[in-house]
Design brief:
Elements (H helix, E strand, L loop, with lengths): L3 H12 L1 H9 L1 H21 L4 E5 L5 H7 L6 E6 L2 H10 L1 H5 L3 E5 L2 H6 L6 E7 L7 H14 E12 L5 H21 L3 H15 L7 H11 L2 E9 L2 E7 L3
Parallel strand pairs: 1-2, 1-4, 2-3, 4-5
Antiparallel strand pairs: 5-7, 6-7
Helix pairs in contact: 2-3, 3-4, 9-10
This protein binds S-adenosylmethionine (SAM).
Length: 245
Amino acid sequence: MSNGSSYDAMFSGIIGRDYDMLQRMSPLSAEMSKIVGRAVKHYADKAGRPLNVVELGGGTGITTLAILSSNDDMIVTSIDSEPTMQNQAKENLKQWVDNGRLFFKLDDAYSALTKMADNSADVLATAYTVHNFEHSYRERVIEQIFRVLKPGGQFINGDRYALDDIFENTRTVQEEISGFFEVLIGENKPDLLEQWIIHLFNDESENHVMREGISLKQLEEAGFVDIALNQRMKVNALVTAVKPI
Ligand SMILES: C[S@@+](CC[C@H](N)C(=O)[O-])C[C@H]1O[C@@H](n2cnc3c(N)ncnc32)[C@H](O)[C@@H]1O
């Protein structure tokens, strides 16, 4: 998978306006899908066999495209609970659906996972979805991810992981908000600005915030090993964890 502008052009061409807007609003979020794709590629290169990858919260397909582009053999099942989002992904990624490499499930993450067999997925990859979950729901989803992964399988999540230093976290989120104002006032999009700010309150609320230390501990308690948080960029980070063999 290449980097840089040709890669951006591919995303822009396939995902269209959504990707262009995400790049302007939150370039680190756009970058994170590529980081997830690279992590999946790393796992696939080491495994050296076709993989069964499950994605949670595929949205319009930005992360799905990064995963699909990481390897030519893997099969991806992309789960999302929102039909409007998933229908856009279906349209954007039609060529992979037609090739039999991409399947969609319209379902909520927990419900979809409970319908999957034990030890059936090589990788569970996701971006910017798990932080939206309320704590108890997130815990139940993580237990299901552990059950569904094969021994040696990997959980790969590029997401908002709030800093354990609460003062630093607040300062970072304040900077993020300033960036939203700069871009969206500049583009005369007050409605979108309102949506992003409202959503941010949800992300940072006591019953949702996905704080680094607690999250890594939660993975350990679920049974995962080799738990790592890498590539932190402000409130964004990549977390990987392995189901022991
Ligand atoms: C912010 S988008 C992320 C899209 C893409 N992965 C990215 O990084 O750009 C989050 C997606 O998760 C989906 N989602 C949120 N809660 C969910 C749940 N409980 N089950 C399944 N999908 C969910 C939303 O519908 C949305 O499409």
